[in-house]
Amino acid sequence: MVAMPLAHVSWALADNALRPACDAFFLDVFGAETAFEMLITPETEKYGFDREERLMMVSDTMLIPIAPAGRGAEPGNPLGDMLRRSAAPMRWLGVALRVADLKAAAAWFAARGFAVRQDRGMEESYFIIARHEALGMRIEVLGQDLPGDPRNDPAWRPDKWREEHPLGIEGLQAIGVSTPSLDDARALFAGRLEWPELSARPLAHPQARCAAFAIGDTMLEALEGAPGSDVAGHAANTKGIYHLVYKVADAQAAADYLRWRNLPLIGEPSDRIAIAPEHAQGRLIWFTDKLPQGYPPVGSRLGEPGVFPQV
Q: What is the pLDDT of residues 2-51, one digit of tens each?
């Protein structure tokens, strides 16, 4: 297994006019901090920029809502059309993972039967594994640092989210992905991607089974929903990432803060809570103070990019 630390999690917005309110929600409620903002200006537009996005840090995790802009706002623009197709509540684009040698990583993925896609001119920067090859979760493999990423600064510490913000976030614990069956998930994540399965465990969700796989510095929770459940519907119709889970110092304190913000909650602090997705920009993001048995301590290891053998 090659541990690949998480660089970011992203989702799409259909219209750039929606982006300010989306960003403001995470800046305000989560205490997110801007690492970098890509904007269309006369200078960037002449280079063909086709999107706008704010790279936001929430504790050790970078979140990026992406909207078509500039040339991307034009019908027929490939990036813009992809973002518009992908924009919907509970639909995420996927994850980006950091590696030390992009060429070696591409050869490793190709040897396991994945179609490695590289955009022209970006062959030294990243490659993409399409959503349809990874249960609806687009995988971007990065060979370089993200602009403004504070995790590259030895002096940067995410402790302030735990110590100074009312949510008390300690770090990202897991990414949940819906699946038609745990057998499908095991064949992909434990088989082709060689991410070790740590446990098959029950969830607070009464209508889903879960198997957890170690990516690198976070866990991937594959969710198989009972027939007719929201999880099963997601696996059939939406696909990909279903939720994020943040580890917090005190779930009751986090719940009290969110209620003070007049945000409706689902779940219970004794297990885990989330803002109702329709009040959280269409995202299901859980908060829990429980660390499941076998899960590693939270914390980004972006400074230790995945190292692949030469194929």
A: 899 999 999 999 999 999 999 999 999 999 999 999 999 887 777 778 99
CATH no. for 166-288: 3.10.180.10
**Which value, in Å, is the radius of gyration of the alpha carbons in the chain?**
19
Question: Could you give the residue ranges of the DSSP H alpha helices within 114-229?
Answer: 159-163, 182-185
Determine the residue type at 151. R
- What are the start-end ranges of the E strands in the chain? 6-12, 33-38, 51-58, 61-68, 94-98, 126-129, 138-142, 169-179, 197-202, 208-214, 219-225, 241-248, 265-268, 272-275, 285-288
Return d(Cα 154, Cα 23) in angstroms, integer.
27
pTM: 0.95
Q: Do domains 6-145 and 166-288 have the same CATH topology?
A: yes
Order of strands across the sheet that contains 61-68: 33-38, 51-58, 61-68, 6-12, 94-98, 138-142, 126-129
CATH 3.10.180.10 for the 6-145 domain, yes or no: yes
